[in-house]
Amino acid sequence: MSQIVIPTINSEYRDIALLGEILKTARRDSREIEIIFRGCRFLRSQAIVGLKAIQLLAERRRALVTYDTVDCSTVVLRHLERSGVRESPLEQPAGTTIPVRHFRNLESAPMAIYLRDEWLGRLPFPLDPEYQRSITSAVCEIFDNVFQHSQSPIGLVVGGQLFPNMKQLQLTVIDLGIGIPNSIRRRLPQYGWFKADDALKFAFKPGYSSRDAPRGLGLARLRNFVGQNNGSLRVFSDVGYAHLGSSEYFGSFPGFPGTLVDVTIPVASPFRRLRTPMEVIL
Amino acid sequence: MKVISISDTFGPFCIASDDGGKLYGLIVDAIKDDQTVELDFTNIEVLVASFLNGALAPLYRDYDSIYLTEHLKFAGLTPSFIEVIQAVVDNAKRYYRDDAYRKAQDEALRLMSEGD
What we know:
The complex is a heterodimer of chains A (282) and B (116).
Chain A: E1 2-6, H1 13-27, E2 32-40, H2 45-60, E3 64-72, H3 74-83, E4 97-103, H4 108-119, H5 129-150, E5 156-163, E6 168-175, H6 180-187, H7 196-204, H8 218-228, E7 232-244, E8 249-266
Parallel strand pairs in A: 1-2, 2-3
Antiparallel strand pairs in A: 4-5, 5-6, 6-8, 7-8
Chain B: E1 2-5, H1 6-10, E2 13-14, H2 17-31, E3 37-40, E4 46-47, H3 49-56, H4 59-62, H5 65-71, E5 72-75, H6 79-97, H7 99-113
Parallel strand pairs in B: 1-3, 2-4, 3-5
Helix pairs in contact in B: 2-3, 3-6
């Protein structure tokens, strides 16, 4: 049996590094996984989504997952229940937790409806329809990339949080695949010497893809969207890290067994309409 | 003119490149016979680059810009959809027509590897 200790996990760089370590432990072959919440006062949605990924890994190899919640705050228990990661005997009010969902394959309609109804739908006011189309399309680029490149054994897990005081919506997507740097190195052996941060820069450049070109616009579009709309995007993939938004940083990371993408968007500031031409020039 | 309603054919969420490939087939079936095709994006809620790459990019392998301008029309586009379609079209044009673009990509990759 393997034991996994879950402490308080925030959303900072070091917290995601800790979550990466926890997920690596969960990947080790074991017939039984005991998840022990020790001194766990709260968990951010990145950790909640990570816990769902552990459940899915265990299900895949028919391992048993048990929870020791003796030393776990009621805030965390409520968060786990509201997200759907832990079963609740009572129906829970939604609160600010976005339900966690799992997609094994690229399922266009369920994914888009999840973003529209369960993520953006959590807002207490209607969004500008064009902003809604822009957000859902940009985020669906992440989903598409996971299924094209990651080789994740569990597909993807997604969840998030509404921050009403900060007027922000956050979304976390986790896959347990080979990671963006390895995906690029494997598909383009001529760039096998790429460091992880080089590979992430490559992945976010428009027109660059490890697949047959012309492709490679999806992540660049997501990068543009968050940059133009005061959002932020963090990517933790294998040993690479990228932070994109009003400023950009690419660097190294202790390690994540797959990829975690974190998108935060403002939802109260006026939608910045793009200066686009009135028609497509072929 | 042949009108293809994207939402009637693929639903309102256009994500998968396989669906884009099907749309490419529908477009080619019409324009190879010198017919004009209008792609109607009315009621589309999600439009992803992969879908468009599958649908539009190979057209630039098969036809030139002048032929496509005469035979391919768009309707029901929103500003964000125009932006992504334009990006896909520009990328495909450069890829299939511009050797210098491909060389520039290689140079950018070399510089990136040197920490630029």
